[in-house]
Specification:
Distance between the termini of chain B: 140 Å
Radius of gyration of chain A: 21 Å
Strand content of chain B: 5-15%
Oligomer: heterodimer
Helix content of chain B: 40-55%
Number of strands of chain A: 0
Number of helices of chain A: 9
Order of helices and strands of chain B: HHHHHHEEEEHEEEE
Strand order of the largest sheet of chain B: 2-8-3-4
Radius of gyration of chain B: 55 Å
Largest interface: A-B, 45 and 33 residues
Shape of chain A: globular
Largest sheet of chain A: none
Number of strands of chain B: 8
């Protein structure tokens, strides 16, 4: 007799998330103070991360985050739960980032910041991962992260969105398709081409750098 | 399966989107093809590096702004529950806007108002002007109680009265219009009320009976009287001049000078 094992844990997790979202949405609609706090606690970090990766400018990202939450609060009454709450909020974030980029391109691209080195304006905590690595590892990691972020900035916005949502935010292909409002095939294509373009940028950056040479010497 | 096809599928392999058959083919190819294997490793490393990019911490200022935004939107949502709540919220907003508008000017306005009232209160007594009391003069008793008097009948100066004998036949007599006198008005042919200002000059007259005689006219034009006082200060008043044409034997006459 064949026995099949049906894994319900994923489905159960999904159902649990859906019920959590429904409860939160209802609480927001009636104006419960706790619901607003909970929404901010769950989504302000990932929304800010997404906005920052899409825009590369912390001040622009802050503006976009505020716009996103303003739209969420004002339109929560009209949310019909056709997609998950997370997907809906990320969709708003991507659209707002897109608008901000368009506005920046039209109005501010000729401006030059006095503080021209974006690296100096960033807190080192934003770059170095958790854990207690050695100073060499810290410096090496920092170098790698700087390179990746620089390469990410050079990607086309369309590909960058797909790569950030998949590889940084860790959304599924289906969720990405919902957020971007495109088909699954388009998502696959954009992720593939985005990763390829990023790889080319990284290889180019590595070639431009002079590799350190370690020469063994005896102690004197 | 060629290298180009394999490299296109490596991205899907990393995300677990290949069918089992396709996955087997790709792995089999990368086992024997070094460039494709290197490509697969580089894509895996790149993916790991992207995953390891630390999530940027939300700036504290942004977190605070988001809380303020949430608070405003919650209040806005609650205000839309009923019309009454909306009106109450509108009233509160108007009051707040008015307070914020007036707060910078409240102190200067209050100070200006108070100082203006104070200055006017101090200056007003000095801004007095001549006026007629007319028929509303209080009685002599009341005026005396408050230290006030009518204009006295004593002439301070008069071109007519210089060298005139008061015992002459028909001298003018002065009294207050309201003051009772020994001689009734009926004994006199000419009675004229004179309005005396603060300096004792005649500023107006009214013929009560008879007509203006030459003497009375001279008094009006050239005389100065002791002015009336009101609470110690000179003020205008009224004095009555009585003069009769008939000889004394036809009337009850006596020299009356009252003030």
């Amino acid at each position: 007799m064949a026995t099949s094992i049906l894994d319900l844990s994923a489905q159960r997790a999904l159902d649990s998330t859906d019920s959590e979202d429904s409860r939160l949405i209802e609480a927001l609609r009636v104006g419960a103070a706790q619901a607003y706090e909970e929404l901010l606690g769950r989504f302000q970090q990932p929304v800010y991360s997404l906005a920052l990766r899409l825009l590369d400018d912390p001040s622009e990202a802050c503006d976009v985050v505020q716009e996103v939450f303003l739209k969420v609060f004002r339109n929560i009454g009209a949310f019909r739960a056709q997609s998950s709450l997370k997907t809906w909020i990320y969709r708003i974030t991507v659209n707002e980032a897109h608008n901000a980029r368009r506005w920046f391109f039209r109005h501010r691209r000729r401006e030059v910041e006095l503080d021209s080195d974006p690296e100096e304006s960033r807190n080192w905590k934003e770059i170095i991962p958790d854990g207690c690595p050695s100073p060499f590892e810290v410096a090496f990691d920092r170098e790698k992260h700087v390179m990746i972020e620089a390469a990410l900035e050079k990607l086309s916005p369309i590909f960058r969105e797909a790569v950030v949502l998949r590889d940084i935010i860790d959304m599924s292909y289906e969720e990405i398709a919902e957020v971007l409002g495109v088909s699954l095939g388009t998502v696959k294509s954009r992720i593939l081409r985005g990763r390829e373009a990023l790889r080319v940028e990284l290889v180019g950056s590595l070639k431009d750098q002079v590799a350190p040479r370690l020469v063994p010497k005896t102690a004197e | 399966m060629g290298c180009e096809n394999v490299q296109e599928r490596i991205s899907l392999l990393l995300d677990g989107k290949l069918t089992p058959v396709e996955r087997e083919h790709v792995l089999a190819h990368t086992d024997v093809c070094r460039p494709c294997d290197t490509y697969r490793e580089s894509m895996e490393t790149q993916r790991v590096l992207l995953r390891n990019l630390a999530h940027a911490q939300v700036p504290k200022a942004l977190a605070t702004q988001l809380r303020v935004l949430a608070s405003h939107e919650r209040e806005r949502q609650l205000a839309r529950v009923s019309f009454g709540t909306r009106v109450r919220r509108w009233v509160v907003n108007v009051e707040l806007a008015f307070d914020n508008l007036m707060r910078p000017v409240a102190l200067p306005v209050t100070g200006g108002l108070v100082s203006t009232l104070l200055i006017f209160a101090l200056l007003m007594p000095k801004l007095s002007f001549s006026h007629e009391t007319g028929a509303h003069e209080p009685s002599l008793k009341a005026l005396s109680f408050f230290g006030s008097t009518f204009p006295t009948g004593s002439l301070e100066s008069s071109p007519w009265n210089q060298g005139v004998d008061e015992n002459s036949e028909d001298p003018p007599r002065f009294s207050s219009p309201d003051q009772p006198t020994a001689d009734p008005e009926s004994d006199y042919v000419n009675i004229v009320n004179l309005v005396i200002d603060e300096s004792g000059k005649v500023v107006d007259w009214t013929v009560v009976r008879g007509h203006l005689t030459e003497e009375i006219t001279s008094i009006i034009l050239f005389s100065r009287f002791q002015p009336a006082t009101d609470l110690g200060r000179t003020t205008s008043g009224t004095i009555q001049v009585r003069q009769g044409l008939l000889p004394c034997k036809y009337r009850r006459c006596s020299a009356t000078v009252r003030g």
